[in-house]
Design goal:
By secondary structure, the chain is of the alpha/beta class. The chain contains three helices and six strands, in the order βαββααβββ. It has helices spanning about 20-30, 65-70, 75-80; strands at about 10-15, 45-50, 55-60, 85-90, 100-110, 115-119. Strands 2-3-4-1-5-6 form a six-stranded mixed β-sheet, with helices on one face. A hairpin with a 6-residue loop joins strand 2 and strand 3 (about 55-60). The longest helix is centred in the N-terminal third of the chain and has 11 residues, at about 20-30. The model has no long low-confidence stretch (mean pLDDT about 90).
């Protein structure tokens, strides 16, 4: 998937806690050639990984109180910037995700297996 993404790509991730959203992001960042350490942005809201072929902006909507919080923090600039935006818990505020965003759903099938659906 990393090969087909370019500037302005938005990936909207949804799935319960532990379903693999951050693990997916780790793989995508590595696929872009970055050796950055990827962690969940739950408490910082956004992490930027800039050492690959294209920057990745890893966002998390889990702690946002309202959709307006997103705009007031200026996070919408990421969606139309020069990198790839990955949003965990995107289903909390789906109206924020641009029309060109790709939705990816993660489900826990078992302790060691996940079901990933790309829409």
């Amino acid at each position: 998937m990393a090969r087909e993404l370019g500037p302005g790509s938005v990936l909207a991730l949804r799935g319960e806690l532990g379903a693999g959203k951050t693990a997916f992001t780790k793989g995508l960042v590595a696929g872009l050639g970055s050796k950055d350490v990827v962690t969940s942005p739950t408490f910082t809201i956004v992490h930027e990984y800039t050492n690959g072929r294209i920057p990745v902006y890893h966002c998390d909507f889990f702690r946002l109180e309202t959709a307006g919080s997103f705009n007031s923090l200026g996070l919408d600039d990421y969606f139309f910037g020069q990198g790839i935006s990955i949003v965990e818990w995107a289903d909390r505020f789906p109206q924020i995700i641009p029309a060109h965003g790709r939705w990816i759903t993660f489900e826990i099938a078992s302790e060691n297996q996940r079901i990933i659906r790309i829409e």
